Amino acid sequence: MGPLGTRKRCEANQHQRLEEEPNPAGSFLQCFELVLPWLTPQELSHVSLTSKSLYHISKSITLRRSSDASRSFENLPIPFHNTVDNHPYAYFIYTPSQILPSFSLQFQRQAWGLGFTARPNNAICRLPVERLVLVDDSGKSVSGCDCKRCGDQVGCPCIGFDGLDVASECGPSCECGLECGNRSTQRGVSLRLKIVRDRRKGWGLYADQFIEEGRFVCEYAGEVLTTKEATNRQQKYDGLASSSSDHFTSALLVLREHLPSGKACLRINIDATRVGNVARFINHSCDGGNLSTKLVRSSGALLPRLCFFSSREIQENEELTFSYGEIRLRSNGLQCFCGSSCCFGTLPSEQT
Ligand SMILES: C[S@@+](CC[C@H](N)C(=O)[O-])C[C@H]1O[C@@H](n2cnc3c(N)ncnc32)[C@H](O)[C@@H]1O
């Protein structure tokens, strides 16, 4: 065999060796690709300073995070857009539905920005408050329907009175599945939305498509708190807002469902500050904005859910807003920048 033949054989052997020998540096970096998505923005930024490779991995994680606030929990990605300062995204734990703090406190971290996109198989979306169901003496769920096509069926017991601010749907104790026509608020976000940064209001939720009047937009998901816990957390948030140099915003919403007599009968506290969904970005507008809220009760579920619907036609690139309330208890309330002609000048503030 001539010299050419020998060289070819050597090259072939070398190629084989390269394939067989593990590449420790490559495996090491692959591990970082899996570990870094679990870090908070501060931790990620510290790690990114330690080497060029980690800088590049952190950068791609940041890009992926800013391309979808919902971490694939929703049907469509919900990107962040910021042309006013250097915040690429807002950091929080995502839940597509209401959860109890006893569950959410087990989730100190949530992977966000992994290199591959898979539907999240995260236990957090399996522990919704909907698990809190009404049962009979034998422990069996009650008050569901056994229709096959509830939307079409006359007499489905779950299709109750839908008023201006209340609605009823099939729920956890019904025979029908998620595709049922009477579960329109239970399938997550199905409109194109985006989160846009404003110099004065912080992040805000925007329409990224035309929305017809009356469409379901999203629910207000977060931790459902006792009133005592809500009061404690609000005090903590007020302290953080006044002391932190980096504009801290909370998203604790108090809902009161009133009896016809006008007396409050049910109070629900939903905190989306640490654990929440896209609704935590909806800003206030003094003119009522373009979203209306409904308390949606699902058959068999103990607690209603707060859902947002478009109250009129909404154009692409319009900000989605609603009124946080009418009461302004604080004389030194936060300045309002809603820009409406009837702006009060300050944001609503209630006693939590
Ligand atoms: C539920 S969060 C809404 C999202 C928030 N902008 C953010 O960046 O996360 C409520 C906070 O947003 C800000 N905000 C909401 N509506 C506003 C408005 N009309 N004018 C000024 N700030 C507003 C206030 O800081 C308020 O405490």
Helix-strand string: HHHHEEHEEEEEHEEEEEE
State Rg.
25 Å
CATH architecture: Beta Complex
User: CATH fold name, please?
Assistant: Beta-clip-like
Mean pLDDT: 85
Secondary structure tally: strands: 13
Biggest sheet architecture: 4 strands, mixed
CATH superfamily: SET domain
Question: Based on CA inertia axes, which overall geometry fits?
Answer: globular
Portion in strands:
15-25%
Subcellular location: Chromosome; Nucleus
Protein name: Histone-lysine N-methyltransferase SUVR3
Biased composition (Basic and acidic residues): 8-20
InterPro entries: AWS_dom, H3K9_Histone-Lys_N-MTase, Post-SET_dom, SET_dom, SET_dom_sf
Can you walk through the features of this model?
This is Histone-lysine N-methyltransferase SUVR3. One of its GO terms (molecular function) is metal ion binding. Keywords: Chromosome, Metal-binding, Methyltransferase, Nucleus, S-adenosyl-L-methionine, Transferase, Zinc. It is found in: Chromosome; Nucleus. Its main location: nucleus. The chain is an alpha/beta fold and 352 residues long. The protein has one domain (26-352): Beta-clip-like (Beta Complex), CATH 2.170.270. 21% of the residues lie in helices and 19% in strands. The chain contains six helices and 13 strands. The protein has helices at residues 3-20, 24-35, 41-48, 52-67, 101-104, 227-243; strands at 80-81, 93-94, 166-169, 193-198, 202-207, 216-219, 222-225, 252-258, 264-276, 283-284, 291-298, 305-310, 321-322. Strands 2, 7, 8 and 9 form a four-stranded mixed sheet that branches. The chain has a four-stranded mixed sheet with strand order 3-11-12-6, with no helix packed on it. A three-stranded mixed sheet has the order 1-4-5, with no helix packed on it. A hairpin with a 3-residue loop joins strand 4 and strand 5 (202-207). Helix 3 (41-48) runs antiparallel to helix 4. The longest helix is centred in the first third of the chain and has 18 residues, at 3-20. It is globular and about 65 Å long. The model is unreliable at 1-7 (pLDDT under 50). Bound molecules: S-adenosylmethionine (SAM). S-adenosylmethionine (SAM) binds at residues 90, 200-204, 249, 251, 280-281, 283-284, 334, 336-338, 347.
